[in-house]
Write a structure and sequence with these properties.
- The chain contains 9 helices and 7 strands.
- By secondary structure, the chain is α/β, with parallel strands linked by helices.
- The chain has one domain: Rossmann fold.
- The protein has a 7-stranded mixed beta sheet.
- Helix 6 runs parallel beside helix 8.
- The protein is globular, with a radius of gyration of 18 Å.
């Protein structure tokens, strides 16, 4: 039986969440902020782009395991975490409860959000946009984001041909993908710019992507230092990075 893209995505992530649920112990739900913020080099600087979130309404789009929602709630935000997968929403709810964080969770489709216009002051997403129809998703993001609101997304990038080959052909830890997802391209950025003309993009990890194969902390720190130097000296090399951080705001048109 042929499944739609939405059905395939939901099934894949529900199955993944069920596997995780079978392996998680109660103590595994409790974590420190740094456990999330430092697990990839782009997470902490990307989350900081949301600015001061205390008292603000923040949407964690595609919340998955819910760690970002908890970190944002600890910073004083009023957080709603949403995901297509009911299994992941259940895990996220358990994680919020275990960490005494106040987070509301919703099962929903990111291309048809069940929220009012201008409902959020900020939107966060990690590895979610590349699963979506960007024209539909961008229109929904613009609709639910309040004027002046900030949106930040961390997404895999398709600009490095060697990396794309490795993604397709090589086994490595954490290699789990749905049939319909693909890293973002320059064409995808153009789609987003139709709704958010002031989109800003920054690349992360050229050499440090080797950290997926070697988990030596001192080696990874050295590779990250080299990346910072390379990208500062030659910003154009960001096109070869593993991930990009997208930052955009909603501005009202001039009267």
């Amino acid at each position: 039986m042929h499944r739609t893209r939405l059905e395939s995505e939901r099934l894949f992530h529900d199955e993944q969440a069920a596997q995780r649920a079978g392996a998680l112990r109660p103590c595994d739900y409790v974590f420190s902020d740094d456990a999330y913020l430092q697990h990839e080099s782009w997470i902490a600087p990307a989350l900081d782009l949301l600015g001061e979130v205390r008292g603000k309404r923040i949407l964690d789009l595609g919340c998955g395991h819910g760690m970002a929602s908890v970190v944002l709630a600890r910073r004083g935000a009023q957080v709603i975490g949403c995901d297509l997968s009911a299994g992941y929403v259940q895990e996220a709810s358990q994680r919020a409860k275990a960490n005494h964080a106040s987070v509301q969770h919703v099962v929903c489709d990111a291309e048809r959000l069940p929220f009012a216009d201008e409902a959020f002051d900020g939107i966060w997403g990690n590895a979610i946009l590349h699963h979506l129809d960007l024209e539909l998703a961008a229109a929904e993001l613009r609709r639910v984001l309040a004027p002046g609101g900030q949106a930040v997304f961390c997404e895999p990038w398709a600009g490095n041909r060697l990396l794309n080959w490795a993604r397709r052909e090589l086994p490595y830890p954490g290699k789990h993908r749905t049939a319909d997802e693909s890293p973002l391209t320059f064409a995808d950025l153009c789609r987003l710019k139709r709704s958010f003309p002031r989109l800003r993009v920054r690349g992360y990890q050229i050499l440090a992507m080797l950290g997926r194969l070697c988990r030596s902390s001192w080696l990874l720190a050295g590779l990250r230092w080299c990346d910072d130097w390379l990208l500062m000296k030659w910003p154009g090399w960001q096109r070869y990075c593993r991930y990009v951080v997208l930052h955009f705001a909603k501005f009202s048109p001039p009267s």
